[in-house]
């Protein structure tokens, strides 16, 4: 007995991709149920807690949208590099550097700017610049020295996280925060417009505009065209006269800038102050979101919302069933595996042959 | 002053031991042509499993065995994905990290703040009395000694035995190895899983000897540092030993600095191992060095008889 893989001649249709993604999510949910069962909890009650509030009530939906925002920014950030098969796992660090830069600007660089129309764009540029710089470093190392970008982006994530820790525990600790490592609150001019009291803010709108911007970038520009070619085959890209080195750096810088703006939006739109562990790993979840959305910026909006709701739901789980929220990481891992496996079944015909 | 020197060097060995185990395991897997980036996930599962079994049974060796097996189990998932299904090894490795982080955090939640049996130092007679060297090298726990022994054993295995030669052949030229009658698929499965054993052991060392407790994400990126160390070590177990202890040294430097009252904040010193990893990669990754020493040629490329690429 042998298992044979035969490549299918046709590319999988949009419909079959959609259905197989759906099946992958279902499989991951089933496994999730078993994991919940392993601690003796009722999986069906857990599913209900996971979705009922986050997707079934207005305040829940609003909170899901608020959680979607950082996920959407970081997913769009990694998506660009993924297009050319560049494994940018650094969205987490780029996001944190963007948040750091926004805080720096709001509290220390521009204390005398009281006009939000000046302040907000300045913070956004600052966030984008630091996020871009955190993408530029692994980009240039990969382009000119062949340094593996997975490792360099990951290492820089840790550096960024410790940098935020250093500032919030040390020089930036807010005056009224006693022993808590929290900076002072942003001034009014540095806060994005808020709608209602549920956390709905203008950053969400920016994130969706960003998705359309990325769509334009990858679909309708020369840059996007080059990404596509280089993603299919790096060498072919070189023969086609594409400056691959420049492309690598550009993809990392643009991606970093988008994640950096995400960090800024999280500060100015949601949290208003910097503190350690302010991100539950948005930049890592972004990797899975980009994959599940098959690197399509518009699909990324939908998938980010789904994961935002999942994050909110997992907080409900913790609150009402005392189920640790790290469960979501396990879900992410299983989902990624089933997505990968479904890829195989879409592209290959699998036959068992007797030998 | 003497105390600080001794505590720094012995700290380097203690902190370097989990890195050493994980790196050695990954060297074996990569030598067979399978890139497993999931070390961090396997180590976390090893750390959690080791701690919980030690807590429940009180039997340290059973705990280590369980940790080793869970590492192998997770590696076999990666093996199935990347060898049989031939999917992208990078993404599969990442998925393994998520899975390990999630499951260990989820199941481990009940063990936070608990205490379990842990490995104690076991001074080797005579050798342990040598000034400086004794207290640094020969007054450690058993797992550290296993680390010492693993290095020459794996070196000898890789370069001096037929099985080791076959392993290298599979990673360098799977076609030729296959033609010579070596079972490429089986070889890759075996060494990927053995790699997982070592990662599980590395995790167990962290939760049962290095910092005897369970905390979520307690490996703190050591799995990724080990992936970088494999490149630094140019896939050689002896250089891996030097690299692992050197990295261990950098990560314990902060304790020595605190005693010496060097005015560098803790959170800045915490960055050192990660920054150092980037610098090491800068040198180890340069194409010239790669050409000179070489990664296994077939690293990361799935093998099938029918489909030649």
Short description:
The complex is a heterodimer of chains A (355) and B (309). By secondary structure, chain A is mainly α.
Which key features would you list for this structure?
A: about 350 residues, 2 domains, two-stranded antiparallel sheet, about 70% helix, B: mainly alpha, ABC transporter involved in vitamin B12 uptake, BtuC, two-stranded antiparallel ribbon, 2 strands, about 0% strand
Helices and strands, with pairings:
The complex is a heterodimer of chains A (355) and B (309).
Chain A: E1 2-7, H1 14-38, H2 43-56, H3 58-83, H4 91-109, H5 116-145, H6 149-169, H7 202-220, H8 222-232, H9 234-239, H10 244-271, H11 282-292, H12 297-321, H13 327-347, E2 348-353
Antiparallel strand pairs in A: 1-2
Helix pairs in contact in A: 1-2, 1-13, 2-3, 2-12, 3-7, 3-8, 3-10, 3-11, 3-12, 4-5, 4-6, 4-10, 4-11, 5-6, 5-10, 7-8, 7-10, 7-12, 11-12, 11-13
Chain B: H1 2-31, H2 39-57, H3 60-84, H4 89-108, E1 122-123, H5 133-137, E2 139-140, H6 142-160, H7 162-172, H8 174-179, H9 184-210, H10 222-232, H11 237-259, H12 266-269, H13 272-284, H14 287-293
